[in-house]
Every structure is written in structure tokens, then in C-alpha cells.
Design a protein that fits this description.
Layout lengths: L1 H9 L14 H6 L2 H4 L3 H9 L8 H14 L3 H30 L5 H17 L4 H5 L4 H23 L3 H16 L6 H11 L9 H27 L12 H20 L8 E2 L14 H18 L3 H12 L14 E3 L8 H18 L4 H25 L3 H17 L18
Antiparallel strand pairs: 1-2
Length: 432
Amino acid sequence: MGLVLLTVLAYSPTFLNDFQYAWDDQWQVLDYEFVQSHSFHDLAFHFTHFHLGQYMPVNTLLYILIYKLFGFNPSAFHAASLVVHCANVMLVFTVLSKILLKVKPNWKTGRAKGFSVLGSLVFAIHPLQVESVAWISASKVVLYTLFVLLGLRTYLKYVDSRKVPWLFVMAFCYLLAYGSKEQAIIFPLNLLALDYILGRFRPARTKRQIKKVLIEKVPFFALAVLLYAFSISNDLGQLNIEGYPLHQRAMFAMSSFMDYVFRSVAPVKLYYFYFFPIERGEPLPVYFYGYIVLILICAAFLWYNYKKNNRLVIFGFLLFFINIVLVLHIVPMPRKMITADRYMYLSLVGLGTMLAWFVTYIYTKYRRWSKFLALGVAIWFLFLGGYSFIRTREWKDSGSIKQNVKELIEKRKAEGLPAVDNPLENTPNEKK
């Protein structure tokens, strides 16, 4: 309950926020005729077709429910997103707690609960989450995460009971997640991450046991292939090799990866839009090659923890990486921004797990510094919650977020980078 209260407090300004009339809310909610008027035929069409390049029928059903109950009241839509986010926070806490019971049975109750609370609180009130929670059009992010987390929780039940019906429940959660946002297509990879942390791939297990674990996943990967084919049939999901060449996309992937890590630890200078550093055909700035060194340092850190069999760290990294791999530009993306805060929403479960491990490790190894550590952690969380409160206010309306990115545009000009326009500058910004 304390986690929920802190979460609501951090995002409380959202109840006073308006629609983003110049940033997707108009076509996704306000002007989308299906939200206001729909028949059974419309419903069937909606579930079998993409809408303006996105597949989100389950999320649209949420919009319909809110509209039926409250009309186009922005506070109701914001409240719904916050309620789903709070549910996700409790699911993260539950999943982490269940995992610890299995992989750290020798931990005392207080230590295990503290770990779960720390990891969940990072996910709950981190400023990177504001975009997903405070932007109505990003409700599909919090909603697909809800079904992914329910699927992971169900998988833990299956591992305990080995009862096949739980696999069907997982498949249903998978479909609901994909029906909320296409990014959920990678759900089966999250199951493999759980298999790792649960020790289902341990060397001590026989080849037959490991083979059985992999066979369990075949239906889910087959479903992923079918969902991808469905995307292709709607003229989406094809690889577009035009634009930035492969070597530049590889550098974008490394820079994006490190930017997400840095923003997770020190979330400052957050914007609603992050521009590409160069235009197509231009050379990369020299400083970009420094990301190679940073990636190598991260790889060394992960290898060290893998050899030490520190499964919590590796599991946290897997959750982080799996859930952002599709937006790292390794595969060309039809997006004008190089990174986005909302892409980190589910991935923060992974980084929250790693940060919780780090704090727990320092606390137990250096007890004499525990008071200073506790103070530092409290200050950091106070900063996270306070900045989330401020960021939520910045999402009040399109005029507010337009101001948010002006600083970034001026900085680019001062550094001699290519001139860019505010994405909202030439977009209607009035109520309809």
C-alpha cells in the first residue's frame, strides 16, 4: 500500500492535466470515431487491422470504457493510466518477491522485502516513467506492460505447479499484451530470462530437462511468428534498409543503450523528444566512438557477474535489454526520435533489479556505512519522486511540453548541430 501511495503522490498533477491536442491524443482518442461509435462489425475490423500504423485494439477498448463512463474528461483518462501503473507496481513487487523466494531462500525476510521494495520503487516513481503515465496516448505502454507482468506472474505459477492450463493463461496474456502494443511480440524472450533466474538452465540439469524447458516455449515463439506475419500483412514490420547505414545504426544502438543507462541512474535533462544527432548522409560526431569503450566496460561488468553466478544482476540486465532491443535502431525504426522515455517503461524493471542488488550488496558488505547509504538512497528516491512530480506538470498540455524541448533545440544550435524544428510547432494546438 505504501508503494501505491508514493506512486500516486509522485504523479498527482496528472489529474489536472489536459489532452495533448497537438501530440497524438487527437487522432488516437478524440477524433477516432471508433471510440464514440462502434458495432460488432467495427469491433471485428478493429481487431484484425492496424490503425494508422499501430495495433492497439485492447487499449482502444479501455478508451471506449472511459468514454462511456465519463465522456472526454481528461482527468478520467489520466486516472485510468495511473491506476494501471499502480497495478504494474504491485505486480513488479510480487514478481520480484516470488523470484527471491526461489533464488535466495537463505535471505532473511527483511532483506528480501527491502530488495523487492527498492526494485519496485525505482519502477514506480522514476522520472522516465512520466511520459508513459502522464501522456494519454502512451496508455498502451502501461497497459501492455500490465499483461506482460501478468504473464510472467502466471509463468511463476506454472513453474511451481507444472499445470498446463497456466500455459494457456500465459498465451492469453500474451495476446492481450500484443493487442495493447505491438512491442509485446518479444514476450517469449522474457520467459527465457525467467528460466535463467530460476536456474532452469543450470549445468547440473540434464539435457533432457533443458530440452523440455525449451519445448515449453515453442508455442509462444510460434505465436510470435504468426503475430509478425500479421504485421507484415498490414504493411508493417518490413525491414527498411534505406536511411542510415548499418554502421551508423550500430553506433546509434550503443549510444541509445548507454543513454538509457545514464538516464536511469541520473535522470536529468529529460525531454519529450530526442533528436537524431545527424541527418542522413552526414558523418557521425567523433565523440560517438567513445560509446564503444563504455559498451566494453558494461560487457566486462556483466561477464564478471556471470562468472560469479550473480543471477540477479544478469537477470536484471536481460529484462532491461530484451525490452528495449527493438528500439535500439539495430533494426531500422520508422521514428524521428533516437530515444524516448516511454521505451524504458518495462525495461526499468530490469535496471531497478540491478540497482536494488547493488544497494543490498553494499549494505550487507559495508555495515559500518549503512547509515550513510540509507541517507543517500533516501535522497535519491526523494529526487526521483520530486522530479517525477515536476515532469508530470510539464505534461499539462501541448504548450507545456513544447517549452520543454526548446532548451534542447537551442543547445543543438549552440553546438553547431543540424537545425531542427519543434515537432509541435506546426501542429494544431487547439481543442476540438
